[in-house]
Amino acid sequence: MPACHNPLMDPPFVPYPILRAVACTIHANGETRFLADTGPAMTKRITIIGAGIVGIATACYLRRDGHDVTVVDMRPPGEYCSFGNAGILSPGSCVPLATPGILWKVPGYLADPMGPLTVRWSYLPRAMPWLLRFIAASGMERVERIADALRPLLKQTFDAYEPLVKHAGVSDLIRRTGYLVVYPTREAYVGDALAWKLRRDRGVAIEEFGAVEIKRRVPQLAGDYEVGLYLPEQGYCANPERLTKALAAQFVRDGGTLLQRKVFDIEIGADGPRALITGGENVPVETLVVCAGAHSNEFTAKLGDSVPLEAERGYHVTYSDPRVELPLPVFLPEHKFFVTPMEMGLRIAGQTEFAGVNAAPDYARADVLAKHMQRILPGISAADTTKWMGRRPSMPDSMPVIGRATKFANVYYAFGHGHVGLCGGAPTGRIISDLVAGRPPSIDVAPFRVERFS
Ligand SMILES: Cc1cc2nc3c(=O)[nH]c(=O)nc-3n(C[C@H](O)[C@H](O)[C@H](O)COP(=O)(O)OP(=O)(O)OC[C@H]3O[C@@H](n4cnc5c(N)ncnc54)[C@H](O)[C@@H]3O)c2cc1C
Fold it and tell me: 136 alpha carbon to ligand 1 midpoint, in Å?
């Protein structure tokens, strides 16, 4: 059987022979017919809700397989959480947020006006069930299992983005510089020993050094730091918004469809969803992928799956003309922010705020980041800055939901990536395309199933 050629793909995109000329048979009236005889019968009509990095990367991988793909979003691509993140691409980010002892750190974080965590007290009762699950996920055995699941998913970060960015002509956005973590004291570093052990045990390369080497590598950084850790296999995206938009534009050039509409509801028949009820004409559905970020639970609830999804809100300040340069991203673990040298300037991003998905931003949180920036890079010019708030789609166990819906075989979920949605976007898209095609995914996806919350 000849290998099929998919005209959408540049030479590096090796087409999957399974799609058109398939060795699969159908039996009708006792007759065996090859699906290849009837044209591209294995390709599907697929609708994706959400044009963030997860939805767009998924759309690219599905289109690459020859499917007829439509992405529906009320915003242009990459204008929600995928717009303003810290840009970090870290295949080694396998440590969940909830680890043993997290509960005892929370009062200190909350009491510190410059700290990384805030809760809008009126929202606390609503957040409580999620927070209780978060704490329940912090036991040692669970943490090891989560790290075991996250590492293979995120290990593919660069590998999964590479064909997409090459095809879209934006390989320049992916920078493999590594990143640097700095601790003011050895005691602070020892306090995080478990997280570093979890990474090292899973093969993440880490180089440790002292104050002199930190100064040599990042002379711009003010303050005294006793311990530095350099993670050479990590990197960053120089503009997460441009990445999402460029992949979306390529998806459209390849024949994919983008519809700018709000999805209000899903019409469900006996076999699953039939149509999306939108602000415009309804969008017919044959196969559905939910990639709606922090709003995904609004759709899973309609599809029969209740998921503990919370908007973990974060902030950034971007300095367009900072007059200071950094050679690589730097992370300050006591305050939990990254400073990243992006193509549009220097960006400081971090903070976790529980206030509900629809509450207005509280830019006092961004001002906290700006104060930190002034402290660590005193020469920085704040003449031209922008502030932003984004909603991380977070599950209490720090693991995304990837896989089929419980009730319907034609519905897939790809959401809940929390702090690592940029890293996880392309790996997730590739996994969803494998599941849709019936190919075995490259990793065990069982830990990511929605059933874990049943
Ligand atoms: C401050 C901050 C820093 C971060 N730093 C990093 C980092 O360095 N590295 C990393 O990997 N991750 C980082 N993240 C996390 C990352 O940004 C997210 O995990 C990721 O963007 C989620 O992508 P998504 O596609 O799932 O969601 P989104 O980008 O939020 O996309 C969801 C889309 O669904 C659409 N949608 C929702 N409801 C509807 C509806 N009813 N109708 C139509 N459309 C709808 C929205 O409009 C949106 O476009 C950071 C996040 C924040 C806030």
Answer: 25
